[in-house]
Structure formats: structure tokens, C-alpha cells
Write a structure and sequence with these properties.
- This protein has 726 residues and is of the alpha/beta class.
- A hairpin with a 4-residue loop joins strand 15 and strand 16 (622-626).
- It folds into 4 domains: 1-47 and 295-391, Orthogonal Bundle (Fumarate Reductase Iron-sulfur Protein, Chain B, domain 2), CATH 1.10.1060; 52-294, 3-Layer(aba) Sandwich (Rossmann fold), CATH 3.40.50; 411-463, no CATH class; 517-725, NagB/RpiA/CoA transferase-like (Rossmann fold, 3-Layer(aba) Sandwich), CATH 3.40.50.
- The strands form 4 sheets. Strands 8-5-6-9-19-16-15-18 form an 8-stranded mixed beta sheet, with helices on both faces. Strands 1-10-7-4-2-3 form a 6-stranded parallel beta sheet, sandwiched between helices.
- The chain is elongated, with a radius of gyration of 29 Å.
- One of its GO terms (molecular function) is metal ion binding.
- Residues 1-15 have a biased composition (Basic and acidic residues).
- This is Iron-sulfur cluster-binding protein.
Amino acid sequence: MGEKTRSLYSEKAKQALESQPLQKGLTGLQDRFGKGAVKYWRNMEDPGKRDRVKKSRMESFAGLDTILAQLASNIRKRGGHVHFAGDGQEAIDCALEIARRNGVRSVVKGKSMLSMEINIDQALEQDGIEVVETDLGEYIVQLAQQQPSHIIAPCIHLDRNDIGELFAEKLGIDYTDDPPSLTMAARKALREKLLNADMGITGCNLACAETGHISLVSNEGNIRMATTMPKIHVAFMGMERVAPTFEEHRETLELLVRAATQQPLSTYVSFIGGPAGEDDPDGPEEFHLIIIDNGRSKILASPEFREVLACIRCGACLNVCPVYGKIGGHAYNSTYCGPIGAVITPLLSGVNEHADLCKGETLCGACLDVCPVKNDLPRMLSELRYTLAYGSNRWNVRQHNVRESYIFTGWQLVVTSSFIYRSLIRLARLIQRPFTSKKNGMVRTLGGLARGWTDTRDLQPIARQTFGEIWKEKYADTPETAGVAVHHAAGSEPDPGRQPQQPEPVARDYSENSVDPLPLLEILKENAANQNISVHSAASYTETVDIIVELVRTKDPEFSHNKHIVLHDHPDLNRLRLWKKFNREAVTVHTTFASDKEVRAKTGESFIGITAPSYCIAESATLVQLTSPGCPRSTSLVPSIHIAVVRKDNVVATLKDAYDLLGTKKIPDSFVFITGPSKTADIEAHLVHGAHGPRELHLIVVGEPALPDQGEESLAATGQQSKTDQ
């Protein structure tokens, strides 16, 4: 590592230690998420899941070319475009060509570390294209012209006062340090950008080769906006971020969300496999997936480091690392920080150039304990240190410090000779005396090469006696300890290869034969309350209408004075005949007919969106919303209030049940899991609902069964129109 880079690491680490907002934020983050993840893994009902996902990830690398080919083929069948980029510049060139061909002048971005890795923002801006980060934390650091300092919490180094002053300067609002007010100011500023952008750029949390989808995980709703409203969607994906099957995708997704934020599921999990269809009233006209290598093939070919590609970018290792917990993310001077950054950054960008990253970690093993896929980062950090100590032609590493290697060679000689070791201990006790403070008995300062050890701390002096000397003096010759041997009963000798017995997982049988519908609904209500979802029970569709009417009458629009509501053209909602109910009131009802080219505009002016999700998952209170021509994406996203109407017989117990049911259907090009209203905690971990998507989510569970098939016609088919079109 050059002197400039090394001094930058030390300088930024010192700045971090002196930053009170950062230290407060890091402590809170590690107390909440770090300890929470460790506790969850210790008590999880299926302790084998982490091992299964790790095995799946590693085995998929053996046939990664075939898996990626399957993913590309399935996406192309859905009308999407797939591009392969060997390095960052190829990916940038591909994105620029797409933007130029479509006359793109404005881009909104969802959080994507890969886009930061290749520095796409600068390339787009140099081409005259406006680029706006839409994740609240990323938006804040973009306004401040800084870099994110955490994978999940980008602006953890800024407190509410910093953000209040920043918004007053950049957004022209009156100063406030109130997190909800600051969040609403950002919501208003970003909403215009999201609704009118030409292109949306996202990353990819995890793709599924079997179905031909990418999936994107978020809480705020900005990623859904960025993939729904612009006419072009470009997704960047690292070549390793793919699961072969739908089932493997489910288990990996569950680990990702738990490790990242301690939630059963994030608010939104979006699945995208292609552009909008000809009859879809919203969604992008083009979908492009750019699969990027950028050094990953070299890592894949390395037995020592291949394991790091199993990382699912949850950020859990940052939340337990004692080093990151003090110096934060900026000291790493890299897109990736914390223990994962200390491994992946040197491998992608140069080991010598980023030597301080892999040398700065403690190897305490906390990152291994908390990693959802049990990546052995301490082992890989040791491997990187070995390449620095001795050089490596494969990784183009020159020997980092010849003098240091001589010192450790000498140290090896010392610790392998008891005579030399004990002699040096005695000598060191004499040498330390001039440096030891009489006031507190600590070593205050050292000279020469050892000076760095005491620049920022005092050291304990070498003890007057070693443990061995104390033991020999007090106990070695006593009858109680002399000649003691350990005996084992016959057949009870310890087996060094035996694994400790694991506790049996708690059985949870959610099958239809074992769970009565009423308890399942009680489970749903309990979990919905945890996700800030209001649950209403309706015995019939008549009661459902009454509930909706009451909500419409008591709620006020956020962005206008007119009450517009929009609902899906779905058989269950068509039974409500809401346009008749509001015929004499100042409420305009829109239905999302596939043939209506004005659906996007009508949805934008509506303050309530009503949908009929295909399923509702009780264990997490999650809605499964499939996209179809009469059921577009934006109805559950753009309005301030989302009302979901679900029949009781469409409530399933677990995420696995939902995946199994989806596996029996022709999966649409786009669908989404929704777990609660939009939310963010980017400003001092203060939870605020309504970051970008709906501020409220109301779930109406209807006991009345579905209509016979002959009654399930859309309003468009029967000639019915919305109130405004009559």
C-alpha cells in the first residue's frame, strides 16, 4: 500500500474516533442488529438452513456458466435483454448505449453497491444525464457529496442536526431536526424525480435462474418506484448473485433479510423478469440486466478465496466487527467496508493498494459467527496477510514489508524456544522500567518501531511473573496436582471428529390438516400488528364495502384536495361496485383497465389504492401481489394509502407455502411481496412510515368465498366503467 493510501486509512480512522454522531450511531447499530442476529442464529428453529444455503451457494459456483445461461435464456423469453460485461468499463459502455439510444436525460437509482463499484454515476453525469439516488440514506450522502458508511445504513455518520442543516441548504426548507419532517421533505422532493425519470437503475440482491427473475429487497419503496415508473429499467448484477432454483432462492432470501434487518421479510421484495406487456398499463417498456464479472472470475478460480463469493451482502459482519464498530466505513476508502470489505476490496482492487484493510481486522471470529452463510472471513484475511508477507504472482502482490517479515521470522524463533522466550521476558522487564509511569503503573510511551503501540493508548507492563512461574511456585509440587491423570470410562473417550449434538428444531406444522383457519388468522393479526398493518375482518363483501367507505371518508389526501381512489380490475374487487357507492359523493373511483392508457396518471392523483393480492402469508403478514394487465404494479405503491382485500381461503401459513403455490402457476413477469407500509430508519434509527410508498396499509380479510368461474369477468369485459368515464 502506498504511503498516501496508508495515511488516509489512519487519518480517517482517527476522524471517526473523534466523531460523536458516528460513535453513537455505530454503538446503536451494533447493539440492535449485531446482537439480534447472533441471538437469532443461536435460537433459530431450523439450524441447518445456514449450512444448506452455504452448500447451495458453493455448489452453484461449479456450474455457474450453465446457471447464468439459464437465467439469461428465461429472461429473454420474457422479453428482457441480458448483457454480459467483463469489467466495469464494459458495463458502463452498455448502460450509456442504452441511455443514448432512448434519449435518457434523467436517472433515478435504487441502492446498488455494484453500481458504486464500477462508478456508473460519474459516467452518466459526464454524459449530461442527471443521476439521483433515491434511498433516503443514499440521497442524504449524495446531497452532502460524501460516501456511504454502511451497507444498510448509509448516513449513520450524520445526525439529525447535520441532516436538518443539509436539507435547509439543498432543499430550501425551514430548518428542522425532526426525523419524520425531514423524511417527508425528502419524500416530496424525490417523488417528482421518481414519477418523471427516464431510466431507473438498480442492483440485484439475488436472481433465480429457474424462473428467470431478479429480486430486489427494500423497505422504503424507492426501488419499486425506480423499476415501475421510468420507461427503461437497467439492473446491474454481480455474476455470483444467482440461485439455481426457486426453493434455493427462498431459503437464501430468508437468511438475507434476517441477517440484514432482523425482519421476517423486508417491506418489499420485488421480482422482475422482463418489461411490461403490451396490455400492462404501467411498468418499463424495456428491461436490461447487465451481468458483471469485474474480477469475480479470478476469485472464482481461487480455492483460497472462492468462498467470499457466497456473500449475500447483508451487512451483518459490520454489525459485530469491533474494528468497524469504532472506525466506521469511510476509513476503508472503498465501496465495501467492514470485514467483507477487508477481503473483497483487496481481491478486486489490489492487495498491496488495500493492505491496511486486511491487516486492520482483529481475526476475533465474530464475523464468522454472525454470517448467515458462515463465510470464514478470518481465514481469508489470514490468507491475504500471507500473500502480503511473502508476495504472490497470481495476485500480483509484492512482498509488503521485508523488515516486518524478518521480525516475524525472529519472533517464530523466540516462541519456539522456551529458553530464549524466558530470557527475553526477563530482559523486557528491565527494559520497560524507564517507560513505566509511577503514577498508574502503565507503559506510557515506547520508542523506535514500537512507538505506534503507545501513540493513542497506555499498555499494561509485562507481569513480574508469568502464569507458568506462578503455577510452579504455588502448585507444581503439591500432592493434589502432582502426577494427576485423567481417566475415561470404557467407551467414553472423546472423539476429536465428533460434532456436538445439535438441539432438535421446534416442529411447526402449518398444514391444512393441523391448523384451524381461526388460529391462522390470529397468527396473521398478531404479526400484522408488528408490521404496522391494520387488519379488518369482514364476513362478506358487503361488510368490506362498509370498511372501505369509512376509510375513504375519514382519511385525507396527501398531495391534493380531491379524493381519488384507484382499484384493480379484479373479480373480487369488481363485486364491491364502489363506483355506485360513491356516485353521490365527492369521490372519484378509477379502475385499472388494461385498455386504459391513462391509468398511470389516474393512479398518480389517487390517495388510496385498492388491490386483491393472490395470497397473504400469516407468519410474516406478507401480501403476494401478482402483476397482470388489469392489476398493475403502481396501485399498491403510488397512493398514500394501500387497502388490500384478501379472501380468508387465500391466507397461507408460511413463505414456503407461498413459494410452493407460485411454483404450480405460470409465474408472471413481475410480482412483489409486501410486508407493511413503506418505512425508513435512516435518520438516527428513527422509524418513519411513508418514505416513498404508502404511509398506511389496511388489510381486509373477507370470509365470503370466491364467485364461480362464470362470474369472474373483469369490468372491462362487462362494459362497466369508472365513475369518471360514465
